[in-house]
Amino acid sequence: MRMRQTGRMRIVVLTGAGISAESGVATFRGAGGLWEGHRVEDVATPEGFERDPAMVQRFYDARRRAVASVHPNAAHRALARLEDALGDELLIVTQNVDDLHERAGSIRLVHMHGELRRALCTACDARPAWSRDLVDLPPCPVCGERMLRPDVVWFGEMPYELDRIEQAVVACDVFVSIGTSGAVYPAAGYAALASAFGARLVELNLEPSDAVVPFDDARTGPATTLVPTWVD
Ligand code: BJW
């Protein structure tokens, strides 16, 4: 394993829907999947939004309400403790659009698939906070156009902060994948990228994911048990 001369380890943690499952947030795939009978690949698209914007806005409003009523769990809190210990040696890259990592205290965090708590103006690219007032699709607070959509990354769109993420992935000593199925790129390719640059790979998941590279340490079980054990 590569380590800097300081002896400290650089760790990248990639999280997916599984880390929030025990808080009561539904995952995307598998039984009881989030889009209720629709394949996420069919509906989480710009075309799906164009077809039926009102349905998609309603769906995201319902998810905002659902996330507001749940709390970070022991896995989110364990990662916040890890950041307290490691500081800028740790980067959490989450595919989740909920805010449970930050509510647990994490700061060095990238939301690569966007955030439920923001809107995106397709006219001027502003990303204002999403408040209750936006439900009736008012004008963008920056440019005045009525072109707001959820600030989330759908299939075919470019995820956020890819340069920052890739720099951290190629430089890390340990890459940890938590509660993600490995079905969606580019996130699904990060374990292989980290491995190619010499990182040790750890997976913490309810069941083994679709990862294309073998993990050095693959543990199966619920995140609220596995993550605190791995961190502490
Ligand atoms: C537990 C647990 C517990 C449960 N404890 N664990 C062919 C090949 C390669 C790529 C492509 C391809 N065709 C198209 C593409 C690209 C496409 C893609 O990947 N498609 C796939 C279907 C193949 N990707 C894109 O379009 C992305 N953009 C892109 O590629 O841009 C171009 C580009 C080019 C070059 C470089 C970089 C970019 C954009 C993807 C956007 C994904 N958006 C969504 C919706 C976000 C908004 C919303 O939330 O509504 O993101 S889809 C959905 O899937 C969401 C998630 O973040 C993402 C991943 O899901 P996740 O988190 O893994 O959840 P699940 O449900 O799949 O898995 C849960 C896991 O938890 C399971 O493993 C369980 O076991 C586990 N678990 N309970 C621990 N208690």
Give the gist of this structure:
With 232 residues, the protein is of the alpha/beta class.
Provide structural commentary.
This protein has helices at 18-21, 40-43, 46-51, 53-68, 74-86, 100-104, 162-171, 190-196, 223-231, and strands spanning 11-15, 90-94, 109-111, 114-121, 148-152, 174-178, 200-205, 217-220. The protein is an alpha/beta fold. The protein has a domain at 11-27 and 71-113 and 159-231: Rossmann fold (3-Layer(aba) Sandwich). Strand 6 (174-178), helix 8 and strand 7 form a beta-alpha-beta unit. Helix 5 runs parallel beside helix 9 and helix 7 (162-171) crosses helix 8. The longest helix has 16 residues, at 53-68. It is globular, with a radius of gyration of 18 Å. The two termini are 20 Å apart. Ligand BJW is lined by residues 16-18, 21-22, 27-29, 40-41, 44, 95, 97, 113, 152-159, 162, 179-181, 183-186, 205-207, 209, 222-223.
SSE topology sketch:
Layout: E1 11-15, H1 18-21, H2 40-43, H3 46-51, H4 53-68, H5 74-86, E2 90-94, H6 100-104, E3 109-111, E4 114-121, E5 148-152, H7 162-171, E6 174-178, H8 190-196, E7 200-205, E8 217-220, H9 223-231
Parallel strand pairs: 1-2, 1-6, 2-3, 6-7, 7-8
Antiparallel strand pairs: 4-5
Helix pairs in contact: 5-9, 7-8
The protein binds ligand BJW.
Ligand BJW is lined by residues 16-18, 21-22, 27-29, 40-41, 44, 95, 97, 113, 152-159, 162, 179-181, 183-186, 205-207, 209, 222-223.
Reading the helices and strands in chain order gives EHHHHHEHEEEHEHEEH
Give the strand content: 15-25%
CATH topology value of the domain at 11-27 and 71-113 and 159-231: Rossmann fold
Count of extended strands: 8
- Secondary-structure-derived class: alpha/beta
Tell me about the largest β-sheet.
Answer: 6 strands, parallel
Radius of gyration: 18 Å
What is the helix fraction of residues, given as a range? 25-40%
CATH class division of the domain at 11-27 and 71-113 and 159-231: Alpha Beta
So what's the overall shape? globular
Count of alpha and pi helical runs = 9
GO molecular function: histone deacetylase activity, NAD-dependent; NAD+ binding; protein-malonyllysine demalonylase activity; protein-succinyllysine desuccinylase activity; zinc ion binding
Function: NAD-dependent lysine deacetylase and desuccinylase that specifically removes acetyl and succinyl groups on target proteins. Modulates the activities of several proteins which are inactive in their acylated form.
Binding site for NAD(+): 16-35, 95-98, 179-181, 205-207, 223
EC number: 2.3.1.286
